[in-house]
């Protein structure tokens, strides 16, 4: 539920991006893909280290500010747009400023139509119905419910209260039903020798990979600072929700998981490839035109990130190492 609150916190703030914002996001994406925030040289058009990018990237400084309404051609953002987008990426908050969800990584995958659709269209046609009529107690009246109005003007604090509420009819809250009481306690799974491999696209517009990283950090802390002997997390740079985005989003994690469980061979990096022209699994239309159709990258065990070794083609995973 918390990820669904994020667009509402922006609409409520009065800084909601208008219809041109999706175009203007290209300016941010280009700054991320081709700026100094990549933490590697030469630049390959991917944000491998989102944590370092978050520190280095400054929305106010690094994206041009439109000087007039007529200048809004996708190459700049207005001051209001910067405020709204900055709030969007900082994570949902209540009216008092209490943070209720993780921040979102700055990643050039925000340039895609899929990202914009899930962020700015879905809240008015799917998320609002789920939050208002399924998760809230009591549910909103179905006959009079207006999903677009709910997304644009709903009171975030009241929604949060409703998602955590119970009644004689709904004896368990939606939040309790959907979230484990202690997500960092996987002692039962660990105790029976099970293994877990988790991956998440850093340009996922629905669930933030920062939230997954926070969870894995807490899992590690609960296991004396290292959970890698039974659970490993992989970030997929540029990947949108499950697939797509400027990413190498084709990879096999099932085989190494089987090897880990059945033979005790712990997985290291996973080689992922882009789905360019001719790919048997389907072409990813979000790929930049200057990428090789079969560009490959290592997906690294968190918190390591892929870095260029300094020689060889930047289209080949073997010329990168996880550091």
TrEMBL record:
Q: Which Pfam families match?
A: Tannase
This entry's Gene Ontology molecular function terms read: carboxylic ester hydrolase activity; metal ion binding
Keywords carried by this UniProt record: Calcium, Disulfide bond, Hydrolase, Metal-binding, Serine esterase, Signal
Q: Which InterPro entries match?
A: AB_hydrolase_fold (IPR029058), Tannase/feruloyl_esterase (IPR011118)
Task: Tell whether Signal is among the UniProt keywords.
Answer: yes
Q: Which domain of life is it from?
A: Bacteria
Keyword Ribonucleoprotein on this protein? no
Q: Which family does it belong to?
A: Belongs to the tannase family.
Q: List the PANTHER family.
A: FERULOYL ESTERASE B-RELATED
- Name the UniProt record assigns to this protein: Tannase/feruloyl esterase family alpha/beta hydrolase
């Amino acid at each position: 539920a918390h990820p669904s609150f994020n667009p509402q916190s922006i609409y409520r703030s009065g800084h909601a991006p208008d219809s041109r914002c999706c175009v203007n996001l290209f300016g941010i994406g280009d700054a991320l893909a081709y700026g100094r925030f990549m933490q590697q040289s030469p630049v390959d058009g991917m944000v491998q280290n989102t944590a370092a990018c978050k520190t280095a990237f400054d929305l106010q400084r690094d994206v041009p500010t439109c000087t007039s309404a007529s200048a809004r051609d996708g190459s700049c953002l207005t001051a209001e747009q910067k405020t709204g987008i900055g709030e969007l990426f900082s994570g949902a908050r209540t009216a008092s400023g209490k943070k209720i969800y993780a921040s979102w990584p700055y990643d050039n995958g925000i340039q895609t139509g899929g990202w914009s659709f899930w962020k700015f269209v879905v809240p008015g046609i799917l998320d609002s119905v789920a939050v208002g009529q399924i998760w809230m107690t009591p549910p909103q009246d179905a006959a009079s419910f207006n999903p677009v109005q709910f997304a644009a003007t709903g009171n975030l604090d009241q929604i949060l209260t409703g998602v955590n509420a119970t009644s004689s009819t709904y004896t368990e809250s939606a939040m309790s039903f959907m979230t484990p009481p202690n997500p960092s306690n996987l002692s039962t799974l660990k105790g029976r020798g099970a293994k877990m491999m988790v991956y998440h696209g850093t340009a996922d517009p629905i669930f933030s990979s920062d939230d997954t990283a926070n969870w894995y950090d807490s899992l590690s802390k609960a296991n004396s600072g290292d959970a890698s002997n039974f659970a490993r997390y992989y970030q997929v740079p540029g990947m949108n929700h499950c697939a797509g985005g400027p990413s190498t989003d084709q990879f096999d994690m099932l085989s190494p998981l089987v090897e880990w469980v059945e033979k005790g061979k712990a997985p290291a990096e996973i080689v992922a490839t882009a789905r360019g022209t001719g790919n048997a699994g389907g072409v990813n239309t979000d790929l930049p035109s200057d990428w090789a159709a079969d560009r490959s990258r290592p997906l690294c065990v968190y918190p390591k990130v892929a870095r260029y070794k300094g020689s060889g083609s930047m289209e080949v995973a073997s010329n990168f190492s996880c550091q």
